[in-house]
């Protein structure tokens, strides 16, 4: 089972928009050293939406080579076209990813039945562990608990990244899935409570800049040490908030550069964090111990 603090890793880029593989190696080494429990490559935070298919597959291959077997690697392979998601998932399998993360199809607004058929098709086409990803705030598509329960019966669908931040939704899902179905949150601000309420971990944006604290907080919460976990969560609460002051990954890309890893280059239509927010994010990095 995937659990703990799984970093939704930024994709470092050069000024011309090319992936900066030298900086990627430095970042991956940093997360290994800091005790992160796994890395998500080419997810939303990794700017997957602006990678073309060849770049996407190359990023997965190169990341696996750098990570080697030091940490589990989850590959973002979702798309709003089922055929494209299948092809990206095949790339992930060829790259020897440990699992794939598949966001609900965005913009299309499929029905719940369409979601079931979409994910069943990918699971049937590619024999690799697959994690569902529900983030209706970005996709305009909400995968309901009953749909997750139905898909959890598919042998190689092994978990869900549930990013609504709702403890009620978590409780609904828990009733419908087996104990070994990974329950991961994609909402940093409620991660501590999510795990204390029976979740297993987080795919975290905040972990990009305070990986050791996120890993420790997740571990303590998983062990039921509520007050200790909440104490750490309080130290980084402003980071949880301010890393979403503009659309992810704009703030975290700037923050990663601010703590010493490369430059905050992004591909359009994403832009560098507005100057008016930079001082606030910097102060939160200092308060949270990232600087």
Account of the 3D structure:
The chain has 291 residues and is of the alpha/beta class. The chain has a single domain (4-225), classed as Alpha-Beta Barrel (TIM Barrel), CATH 3.20.20. Helix content is 45%, strand content 13%. It has 13 helices and 8 strands. The protein has helices spanning 21-34, 53-67, 82-94, 112-125, 136-139, 145-151, 167-174, 191-196, 211-222, 226-235, 237-242, 250-258, 275-287, and strands spanning 4-8, 38-41, 73-76, 99-103, 130-134, 157-162, 182-185, 201-204. Strands 1-2-3-4-5-6-7-8 form an 8-stranded parallel β-barrel, surrounded by 5 helices. Helix 6 packs parallel to helix 7 (167-174). The chain is globular and about 45 Å long.
Number of domains: 1
Total of DSSP H or I helical runs spanning 4+ residues: 13
What's the story with the biggest beta sheet?
Answer: 8 strands, parallel, barrel
Q: Regarding quaternary structure, how should these chains be classified? A: single chain
CATH secondary-structure class: Alpha Beta
- CATH-assigned homologous superfamily: Aldolase class I
Roughly how many Å apart are the termini?
33 Å
Strand arrangement within the widest β-sheet reads 1-2-3-4-5-6-7-8
In the CATH hierarchy, the architecture is Alpha-Beta Barrel
Which regions contain 5 or more consecutive residues with pLDDT less than 50? none
Strand content: 5-15%
- The name CATH uses for the topology is TIM Barrel
From the spread of the alpha carbons, the general shape counts as globular
Number of strands: 8
**What value does the average pLDDT take?**
97
Q: What's the order of the H and E elements? A: EHEHEHEHEHHEHEHEHHHHH
The radius of gyration computed from the alpha-carbon positions, rounded to a whole number of angstroms, is 18 Å
Content-based structural category: alpha/beta
